[in-house]
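HUMAN:
Just now I want nothing more than another pair of eyes on a protein record. I would be glad if you read both lines and explained how they fit together. I have put the entry right below:
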Amino acid sequence: MTASAQLARVGNNLNQVARVLNSGGHAEYADDVMARVLRAAARVEAAAIELARR
């Protein structure tokens, strides 16, 4: 799966969590979504660094 597709998926999940929380709801899966966002961002950053070194 491409990095942009992964980021789009986690971004969508993050938007869903924000929508629920902003409407006063509770998102039990918020911690999982944040962990996925951070992992995806770290992978993209590592890839960008690797490309910059070439």
